[in-house]
Amino acid sequence: MCSWITDFLTDRRQFVRLGTHVSDLQHISTGSPQGCVLSPLLFSLYTNGCTSGHQSVKLLKFADDTTLIGLISDGDESAYWGEMNRLVSWCSMNNLELNSLKTVEMIVDFRKNPAPRPPVILCDSPVSSAESFRFLGTTITKELKWEQNISSLTKEAQQRMYFLWQLKKFLLPVKMLVNFYTAIIESILTSSITVWFAAATARDKAKLQRVIHSAEKVIGCSLPSLQELYFSRSRRRAAKTAADPSHPGNELFRSLPSRYKNSFFPTAVSLLTQELTDTHDIFTS
Fold first, then answer.
1. Which Pfam family, any one of them, does this sequence belong to (predicted)?
2. What is the pTM of this model?
3. 144: CB partners within 8 A, 6+ apart
4. How would you classify the pairing of strands 128-129 and 104-107?
5. Computed from CA positions of residues 277, 283, 284, 285, in that sequence, does the dihedral angle turn out positive or negative?
6. Backbone phi, then psi, for 183, in 5-degree steps?
7. Which of 71, 94, 125, 82 is nearest to 8 (CA)?
8. 140: confidence class by pLDDT, cuts 50, 70, 90
């Protein structure tokens, strides 16, 4: 699987008619102010027609960042390179400049002897290969390990603990301290938790759990554990996916007819899941 991260710089140019002749047209540099709340919306509307045409290649857009993800099977990279060239052509035709300096490629390949790949050339400049990159606040590595991401979350959460200590000095009610913790600290601990929790090591989870224990000592009440937060976020995410027919994973949450619910496979999966959960609870208690 290859992930190609690009950063767009919009060529914001407007035409102003100064006279009655075409030769009187001049270019002026305009655009929305830096930090304007309308900028992401306008960019999303402008790039709405830029989509992927192949099933194995996904084009993800958020504000002015674009990610091209390709699943390469049997060494066939034609779809990936085709969509990449198509993206470059679309940007050229729609007056958008691709910033090659902010563009990186990360390859996730678990084969023992992967074949060397030719470098990606963008705007006559080779695109650098990255060991990891930060995507929407989550650090993803080429080994799909989460130590680096969890260390970053732990550091940020510990820094915000300082403000919780300061609020404690003002003798605020417990409810207000809990609300502050939920909004400012717990939101960091649960960032993309449905993605990394299952693959995180016990040591990394313990780092985040220690932050929760520290907050409990400051506030003076019990707080949801990291595992409880994971379960609640997973249920919430599953409910949204099941209610959204356009979601790619919607079919995975399709309910079975009542006559099949007690058949072998649904029952066996439930029993195995419950057994694994009970074992994990005993191990962590």
1. ALKBH8_N
2. 0.74
3. 108, 199
4. parallel
5. positive
6. -80, -35
7. 94
8. very high
